[in-house]
TrEMBL record:
Taxonomy, superkingdom: Bacteria
Record GO terms (molecular function): orotidine-5'-phosphate decarboxylase activity
Binding residues for substrate: 15, 37, 64-73, 123, 185, 194, 214-215
Keyword Lyase among record annotations: yes
Biological function: Catalyzes the decarboxylation of orotidine 5'-monophosphate (OMP) to uridine 5'-monophosphate (UMP).
NCBIfam families: PRK00230.1 (NF001273), pyrF (TIGR01740)
Record bears the keyword DNA repair: no
SUPFAM superfamilies referenced in this protein's UniProt entry, alphabetically: Ribulose-phoshate binding barrel
Record's protein name: Orotidine 5'-phosphate decarboxylase
Amino acid sequence: MRMHRAQPSLYVALDFPDRAAAENLVAQLDPADCGLKVGKELFTRAGPELVRSLVDRGFAVFLDLKFHDIPHTVAQACRAASDLGVSLVNVHASGGRAMLAAARAAIPPGTDAPALIAVTVLTSMTEADLVDIGVNRPLADQVSALARLSCEAGLDGVVCSAWEATAMRSVFVQPDPVIVTPGIRPAGSALDDQSRVMTPEEAIQAGATSIVVGRPITRAQDPASVAHEIARSIR
Ligand SMILES: O=C(O)c1cc(=O)[nH]c(=O)n1[C@@H]1O[C@H](COP(=O)(O)O)[C@@H](O)[C@H]1O
């Protein structure tokens, strides 16, 4: 039995500079097509009140604040996130075993609890970036090691690039891990600052359970139609 809220196949990243711009897109979206991701920029501008209001409108909300701090602080932040009624919460796996365990203890599994997942290696990073921060093993090995740690701490899944999605299935012992893949680019769209990218269809075929799409939607001439088309392509 699933021990967290259901997850949509598509989360649209509401990476907008203000609430009005976010609301303009949200008004054109259907909770049956997609969930909404509120990240650091919009949360810092618009805060928990916006998150609650999106939840009240029936959207699954991914509160993407990537907590990474001492265990007590992360636990308290996770509890606050869960209290907002969101469907998905993330922390950085590199915060370590004790921090992951504290996050898990703060959000006990339950059908009404948000899924709790850990970011492995950011989709913007390359192997050279890992060397810069003192990680000398192959990127895929680092992702798998952090996913294993997250699994051992009892988390529900991971954030990784679609390139690593297939491997996550063998790392996680639970039958239905939540595998969230940002770094999604429909064929022909700009990479922006992403490094490890795939198209929506490829990511789902590789084993992603939810994809996250931001700029290919938010910077499109007609964001709602691009969101609808992506949702349709992975249905
Ligand atoms: O946790 C995330 O959502 C995340 C993890 C990661 O490794 N890479 C990544 O891009 N993200 C987020 O996913 C979104 C991707 O946006 P676009 O690159 O515009 O599609 C951004 O809001 C990022 O903060």
